[in-house]
Automatic annotation (TrEMBL):
A Pfam family matched in the record: CBS
InterPro entries with a match to the protein in the record: CBS_dom, CBS_dom_sf, CNNM, FAD-bd_PCMH-like_sf, FAD-bd_PCMH_sub2, Ion_transp-like_CBS, Transptr-assoc_dom, UPF0053_domain
Domain CNNM transmembrane: 1-203
SUPFAM superfamilies assigned: CBS-domain pair (SSF54631), FAD-binding/transporter-associated domain-like (SSF56176)
Full protein name: Magnesium and cobalt efflux protein CorC
Keyword Transmembrane helix annotated: yes
Cellular component, GO, one term: plasma membrane
Membrane topology: Multi-pass membrane protein
PANTHER family the record matches: HLYC_CORC FAMILY TRANSPORTER, UPF0053 PROTEIN YRKA
Amino acid sequence: MENWINFGIALLLVAINGFFVAAEFALVKARPSRLEQLALGGNLFAKVANWLARRLDASLSACQLGITLASLALGWVGEPAFHHLIEPVFAWMGISNPDVLHYVSLAFAFTTITALHLVVGEQAPKIFAIRKPEPMAVWCALPLAGFYYVAYPLLVALNWITSLLLRSIGVEAVDEHGTPHTEEELRNLVAQSHVHGELTRSEAQLINAVLEFDDQSAHQIMTPRTDVITLSMDAPIEDWITTIRKYRFSRYPVVEQSLEKAVGVLHIQHLVGLDLSQPLDRAALLQPPNFVPETIPIKTLLQHFKSSQSLLAFVVDEHGTVVGVVTLEDVLEELVGELEDEFDEQVRDIVPEDDQTFRVLGQTPLDDINKAMGLTLQSHDSDSLGGFVMQHLGRVAEQGDVIQIDGAKIEILRVEGPRIVSMRVRLSAPLASLDAPTSTDDNEDSAAQ
């Protein structure tokens, strides 16, 4: 009878061990925001679970203490109980030598209790808690809180001894569970959430765009100087109207001779309702010019647009030369993708000709090329493929020039003056799959062509 009592105690200890394992992993995996939401619903178990989660280190110490005590007790009670229950079975099978019978029974009992401990007391509750952390944390809350209070003096003593030991060897105890995630870890979490269906593709792309947001500068998103459409301050008003009707932008830089002599920015709504046959005070129609350095991070640029109430800025380099213009729309497109209106004509930067060959615009960013084609092109001086090719050539590119780089051959298809307009990129091996090509809009809300 005593053996059967010990056998029942052993099974109970396995269940207790499983309880503490499940509680530990549930508290680690549970989202604090979800537990707070459940607690606000008035559920007592959820309130206790939220209380334990706010004291995560102490709660996990209680779980570890419970696991250790249960495991030690199981080894003390379980093996003898299983040994004495199994010994008669082996004797019935014909094992008569007392020593052989003892060791075979002991080995079988050890194997059985170990398997039971691992499967029922460790793996099963751990996996269940990982897959359903919030429900498990809520279910375990009250018993764990009771054990936490009962064992609190012992937990304090053990934590004090641990801290003393760590300090003696020059290590400061830290709250490892409060360590923030790195940007790369956040990207991995987003990718895993997308794979498991917790985030849609568009949600994952938006979060990744936010993480990349502050890594870019105005120089990388601006409309280059060569593409900027301007209005001359001295030109007849009829020329202004012709240009506005042709390009259909909402804002235009107004200059005297060059962008370095920018007078201001014209919004076409300021022309609405005016009698254009009469002399106009053009200066009164313009917003003051707004200049930003090309190195300004786009996060800072966004704040600049919000504070200045000017949605178009002239981008200048270290020498004070205007190298392009940038708009609020350019900044927002880095987060949400291309924004097109009824006048925009979609022009794709990367157009596949087959699974190995692509027609690419010279202004296409290197990052887009690398993502779409699986390449690793890098340049400290150029952000676009055209600039990368020009740097590789070491001279002004000409139509028909061909360069060979790791993984691809690039042929110049069209140039306009010193600028590369389009190229053909042929990969050394076909892509197994191609992401949707990046598309850009030549008619952005800036004065870009």
